[in-house]
Here is the input.
Amino acid sequence: MNPYQRALNNLRTQNPLVHHLTNYVTVNDCANITLAIGGSPIMADDLEEVAAITELAQAVVINIGTLNARTVEAMVLAGKKANQLGIPVILDPVGAGASALRNQTLARLLAEVHFAVIRGNLSEIRFLAGFASVNQGVDVSPADLLTVQDSQAVAQQLALARQAVVVITGKVDVVSDGLQVALIDNGHPTMSRITGTGCMLSSLLGSFCGSQKDYFSASVAATLALGISGEIAHEKTQHQGTGSFRVALLDAVSQLTPTTMEQRGRLQIVKA
Amino acid sequence: MNPYQRALNNLRTQNPLVHHLTNYVTVNDCANITLAIGGSPIMADDLEEVAAITELAQAVVINIGTLNARTVEAMVLAGKKANQLGIPVILDPVGAGASALRNQTLARLLAEVHFAVIRGNLSEIRFLAGFASVNQGVDVSPADLLTVQDSQAVAQQLALARQAVVVITGKVDVVSDGLQVALIDNGHPTMSRITGTGCMLSSLLGSFCGSQKDYFSASVAATLALGISGEIAHEKTQHQGTGSFRVALLDAVSQLTPTTMEQRGRLQIVKA
Amino acid sequence: MNPYQRALNNLRTQNPLVHHLTNYVTVNDCANITLAIGGSPIMADDLEEVAAITELAQAVVINIGTLNARTVEAMVLAGKKANQLGIPVILDPVGAGASALRNQTLARLLAEVHFAVIRGNLSEIRFLAGFASVNQGVDVSPADLLTVQDSQAVAQQLALARQAVVVITGKVDVVSDGLQVALIDNGHPTMSRITGTGCMLSSLLGSFCGSQKDYFSASVAATLALGISGEIAHEKTQHQGTGSFRVALLDAVSQLTPTTMEQRGRLQIVKA
Here is the structure.
């Protein structure tokens, strides 16, 4: 059994509680995918309870998709508490570069919280890594549709700078802890035609990292899990449309087995 | 026609408006299930309008899943207004015991508002009934997987203390008004693998109680409705996965008939 | 190719970014339908970034479904910025007439923002046009189930008063810019048994108006697109239930072609 199969088994055995500070657009999808993979979701963002809920959790996911003054404070508090407890925090920097508020919030989060994993599209991760990036909203910018080599370089740079695992989602997904780089060639273009696949991957990252200490393998496993599920969803629904695809994606995550991960994963590990 | 079949007919005839003060995780599911069973959902939580909207409604559902300072005030205001108007208020004490904020909020709600129905899992209801409970988030704690007799006793105790109908969901659901106890052995384990089935039951309780004064029968009917729909959803989708199950659950609620309720209900009434 | 087919082609070519200030009940449906038709959704409502996000967008949708003090300010700010930039703003006056807060908010929005399109059910649009209306929540009032002629008159009146395109959804949908009136006899009754079809149409209006300057044709195209998709969804799912219908509706929008719009559209243009 490879490390990614083991990661899925760990998750299903341990049923980690994953605390989400997330956006109200895709929060239901995040809850359902967390349950589908074998975790338990909880969402609580009031300042008075955010630390208490974090104490119950095995991982925290911070997603700035619909941030506001109230929730940013809660994100900082949850992140700091998680750091104290030694549980992993996942950052989803939705729309990094799109507004001063997002950029300042990300600067503050990165200054006050250590993230175990940072996941975004290339636009977002480039912004965090200090590259200039022209952001067009929350989806990837056409100018960022560059080569996999670019993604690798950016992922490694940010990973080293932040001592985090960095996941860049794109045609080929890139996962790096600064030393190792994994290239994952699963997934299907229809995944970008429904809302929340990025957010859902962040929930899977929380679920996998909440059940084992090797965050690099956990992150590769989570990325494989979603990509493979996207492929299965497309095979099941073909051209029925994005509503059916969305249902089938959740189906596939809930039915995913270690064997399927091994058989369908198109993974390449590149040592740095 | 039994009282539960009549309850469904009442609901479909009267199309009650059910005002929800609820969480942002499952609010869409709550709206859709209210429509599916034959009610009309409305969600409004600004302090300036919450009383006005309550005046239009036939029932109010208060769910503390993602409570915050602003929404707690709105919950109290809606509950008090509903009490003045004599319309039923349903309480869903999500995560009771999980944080001081939740516990204080529940104490305040119970002190200031009379609830017609209180629905939770055994962890939550035990907490409200004054038992010590180790809460692990918003799902039921393993330590609470006790016998149906325990659930009965806790339900009756809280029902008498609060002059409310108490619904405890679990493998066997228990409904009690303190005198009568109904045991409902419908449902399917997959219901706990999607988010919001508890919240959805609270919406059904609002819908049924919003269309008749006998809240005990209304609560039994609502609990039967969801449990039977869960079984039908499983039969339709088998092992397709949780995405399909979720769709089929809403399908089944929307297609539920009094005849199906009579044929499939596994209900036992125990006089106290 | 007729103007509505061209409108769909424009949309798919231009992939407009549609900024939503909307409610937390149906926001996920709004995001998914925007993607399904070919746009890109973004939701951001913090006062500090709402103008910056509007600058990136090609259209703004303002939906007051779950308004509160914080979000109303953001709606005004986004609307004003959009007016400065010359990008269209869509108003969805959910529950107009149902509370003083909603009515005051609508008065303020109409005073401070120019709307390219205003979409509601007959209760809501009558309220905005200054007619007395007995509102029963967010769904259409039985007293408003009047004739298409009434809807036409109300739509034209509000369109002229506000220099906007007005869309009234009902058994027959009415679209008017004050001079022209389009009657659209597509759609299916099941659309009113799921939450958010009105909100979803507002998202489609934003998507179509965000990709061409002729807002009347864009609005007719959006209304045709949803109505035709509702019919296709019903044909595909028949009496499976509202869960399947909802999935099939999103499917149909995502698979809609100009040819289908031409073949299935039941459109009548009445010159004023």
